[in-house]
Amino acid sequence: MIGIRSRSSTRSHAANYAEFGNELMKHKATTIGQKIAQKKGLVPTTVSFTPKQVWEKEPWYWILGESPQKKPDANAIKEMAQKTGFSEADVRRSISNAFDGKELVFLNGIYQVAVRHIGGDPHFVHLSIKRKDRGACHDWRDFQRIKNEIVGPEYEAIELYPAESRVVDTANQYHLWVLYEEGKRITMGWDEGRPVTLDSSCGDAKQRERNEARTITPMLKRYGHLLKIG
Asked: Domain boundaries in the chain?
């Protein structure tokens, strides 16, 4: 079972549910279980829900993943490096970040997102995004929602298409660089209000229907105290 970390300890997922909508953080599975049942059509129960059960009804329900409990040995690091194409030093540094609190991982029923601070001025937060089935994807609406629900709706992010000489392309993994100053605008892009099409009628253009995402407290506002800078 995937767990959620508290400030002082690592607890099981059943003991530490994240909010739905604007509900406050709940710590008893029976209470939140009844609310989920009422909102999502699940059968009310006093038994704790697993993430998989919740994700069947609410795939965009986020949890905070547990830190790894054991560092991989040298052979495992070498194997990871061979599979990913990264150097053993890069793999070791990434694993170290997870152990020393420089990286948090959030999961929902579709995506896994690793989050870390990037130092400097301006200050950026790096979101490393991949589907849990490791499939290829590039859905702008999904990535916008990930940015909103992990960092916040009034933060801006960019995706970089680099010079070919520094391309890293070893996995179906995608990266957003979020300017970590709420309300600060990146000096590019459209600035003509907020034209959002909620249905498929868009003149000669084609657009799928859009369901507005629920409003939640962004994950970094809830768990940012666990993430070290630098």
From this structure: 4-58, 97-188+195-226
* Nearest partner of 142 among 176, 118, 187, 189, judged by Cα: 176
pLDDT digits (tens, 9 = 90+) for 152-173: 999 999 999 999 999 988 889 9
Query: Can you point out the beta strands (E) in the chain?
Result: 4-5, 10-11, 63-64, 104-107, 111-118, 124-131, 157-158, 174-179, 201-202, 205-206
For 46-62, the pLDDT digits (tens) are 445 677 788 888 899 99
Residues 103, 115: contact at Cβ < 8 Å? yes
Rounded (10°) angle between helices 88-99 and 74-84? 110
Strand partners, 26: 17
